[in-house]
Amino acid sequence: MKLNPETLRVHVVPNSPKEGFSRKNLDNKDSLEFGVTDKVYTLYEIFERAVREVPNDNYLGYRPYDPVNKTFLPYVFQTYDQVKKRADNFGSGIMKIAIEQAKTQGQDELKRVLNRQWAVGVYSINRMEWNITDRALSTQSLFSAGLYDTLGESSMEYILNNSEAFVVVCSLDKVHKILINIEKLPNLKAIVSMDSLETVNDGSTQQASYLPPPYNTKSVDILKQWASSKNVRLYDFETVEKIGYIDRIPHHPPKPNDTFTLLYTSGTTGNPKAAILTHRNFSLSSVYASMHRKQYEKNKASMVSFLPLAHVYCRNHENIVMYEKGQIGYFCGDITKIFDDTQAFQPSIFTGVPRLLTRLYNTISEKTVNAPGLLGVVSRKAVSDKINNLKNKKGVHHFFWDKILFNKTKAIISKNLDDLRTGSAPAEEKVCDFLTVTLQTKIINMYGMTETLGSGIGSTKDDTDIEKNAIPFRGTEVRLRDVPEMKYLTTDTPNPRGEILMKGPSTFGGYFKDKEKTDETLVDTYWIATGDIGMINENGTISIIDRKKSLFKLSQGEYISPEKVENVLNTHPLILQSFVSGISTKSHLVAVIVPDPLTFIPWAKKIIESRRNDFDGMSAENCDVESLANNNIIKNLILEEIALLSQRFKLNGFEVVKAIHLEPIPFGVETNGLLTPTFKLKRFDAKSYYKEIIESLYQ
What are the AMP-dependent synthetase/ligase domain coordinates in residue numbering (predicted)? Predict the structure, then answer.
């Protein structure tokens, strides 16, 4: 392929020994480890440096709950120095508890404990204690095994056993779930509750000084007795800090290649795999991301932490904030109140996912471009002007429209917002453009994997469309390899195509106790096979065009990537979730569609009111998703919407869904078990769950 040197936006590694060319970010064409002048290679060093330089700056904050008035109060913070003291004590306390227990089990177990590098489970929603636990474990060269708050019993049991966790730090509501399964957890000897076990719900507003509902003194006493009967030690966070404070165990700092955490990739089939991520992985990723941010942003990094910390995305961003000596505020625990939290905290970074951005797009649209009367007219003109400026490289600000309109929309998240990031799947370009101009900030679409620490390729401040104009992140090298069964070849003209492979200092060290899966994922020792199909553009950028995994064939031999079709369907405002399926003896696709009740019901009501004679007396006022889902007129209208959407996204004819089932119950982690804890569809389970429905759609 001949690249255009005038528009080239990546560095092509010369004499690449493999097909597909190796590509790097232009800023680090000489080395994947570049510009790290402060030589910090562990998160322990990054935190200790922050404490030395800004000991009295706020670091972690939360919103205390007022149980009397049933409201969340303004953020309360702890400084870097305060967090350090708590982390020092907690890390020492964990070691003391482990040493005491090991002494009862013999010299071999005591030696293992003293040698460090063993796991502590962490099981809760995002909160200060999770971060303090991370800081604490680093002081003793221990590592965490993260558990999603939404995990079912079998996954919890698997992770705690696979990681061989001796102790688990969890929120109070998880204690009974662990005790129910304690006979299946032979390694677990201690549970630490993040919530106090000692005080009653007396109306206090301090997070650690009241028992969250439905707990009370009596119920906690029952938990203590239960744990004691199972020979499990039950502590609360504050007690472990006190244990560690008395005759504190000195720090045992980690080395760069020591494990920082095990992150369990929520596989859509089988047990989750534990990606081993080191201090070096995370520290270099933080350095690279911060270097990129500082090219564009004026505010020190700060964020509201709400996406699961058991996932690499939020964990990585918390470390970026720590590297910049910024602030982290934890959400109140209710995702529906996330923008209340951001308005109270005023972060400079907002980490989202495409579905959340689409909801935000719909909310702002209703208040601006879709508003009735003069406001709607003015808003449409303002958005049009700003998008034209955006496309002509004139930036995200407009002196007039921002003053009268968009300063208010920006404040929906934060007046300090200058960095909005989204991952897990590409966000639609029209959504990104709209939010860019209404929030006055560029949106960075990121593509990566747990195994690459969330790093990989992404859009830049100039281009939001990751599917068309992605470049490698700093510290990442990318190449393609042939996928002949899909007819994607690195020799394709004019654009090479193939599976995306990535490597760099941020890439993982393999799967914990799973050499077979490690060997499957790592190509030529260091390259990670992503399972996604990329294409090289004339300017060297990379477009994501398909998905290798989960492919199936239709009767005429066409390969179908269901994720590709689902990503298109899920951009429609009427659709909350979708599951696309097919049978090899049939020539077309079918789908299970979960309507979004926030948009679907108002849309359906308007149709019923305008076509009353067609709906056999169905009342627009009393309709719900379940009754509408069984209506053939509604189904056919949704199919028409899907056809138009497929045309707009230029899907091939065989990729267009021809029959649908409207499902009133959303796919869930616990409700029907069709989602992983990271909200990815369990395709194998969904196919079994909807087997009869899929067959009926072909009749």
Answer: 75-512
Q: Per-residue pLDDT tens for 212-242?
A: 667 777 888 899 999 999 999 999 999 999 9
Radius of gyration over every alpha carbon of the chain, rounded to an integer in angstroms: 26
Which domains does the chain possess?
10-25+350-547 (3.40.50.12780), 53-61+78-280 (3.40.50.12780), 552-697 (3.30.300.30)
Give the DSSP letter of residue 86: H
The encoded tokens of residue 130 equal: 């999770």
Does the structure show a pLDDT above 60 at 634? yes
Conformational region of residue 20, where left means phi above 0, alpha means psi within -120 to 50, and beta covers everything else = left
SS3 of residue 47 by DSSP: helix
Q: What is the mean pLDDT of the chain?
A: 87
3-state secondary structure 52-77: HHCCCCEEEEECCEECCCCEECCCEE
- What string of H, E and C letters represents the secondary structure of 477-544? EEEEECEHHHCECCCCCCCCEEEEEEECCCCCCCECCCHHHHHHHEECCCEEEEEEEEEECCCCCEEE
pLDDT tier, 201 (very low <50, low <70, confident <90, very high otherwise)? very low
Contact 276, 510 (CB under 8 A): yes
| 412 within 8 A of 339, measured Cβ to Cβ | yes
Q: Report the C-alpha gap between 379 and 365 in whole angstroms.
A: 9
With bands split at pLDDT 50, 70 and 90, how would you rate the model's confidence at 178?
very high
**Segment (H or E) for 360:** helix 354-367
Give the model confidence (pLDDT) of 357-400 as tens digits. Answer: 888 998 899 999 999 999 999 999 999 999 999 988 888 999 99
With a pLDDT cut of 70, the percent of the chain lying above it is 89
Q: Which two tokens stand for residue 220?
A: 């906690």
Per-residue exposure over 601-618, b if at least 16 CB sit within 10 Å of its own CB, e if not: bebbbebbeeeeeebeeb
Reported as type and span, the H/E element at residue 173 is helix 172-180
- In this prediction, residue 611 has a pLDDT band, given cuts at 50, 70 and 90, of confident
Sheet with 58-62, side-by-side order of all strands: 76-79, 58-62, 327-330, 302-305, 349-352, 419-422, 443-448, 456-458, 471-472
Task: Please give the pLDDT value at position 456.
Answer: 80
Asked if the model's pLDDT at residue 579 lies above 60, the reply is yes
Q: Is the peptide bond before 666 cis (omega within 30 degrees of 0)?
A: no
CA distances from 277 to 135, 284, 414, 508, 547 (A): 15, 12, 32, 5, 25
| 24 confidence band (pLDDT: 50, 70, 90) | low
DSSP one-letter code for 671: S
Q: How many CB atoms lie within 10 A of CB 76?
A: 16
Q: Strands 119-123 and 143-147, how do they pair?
A: parallel
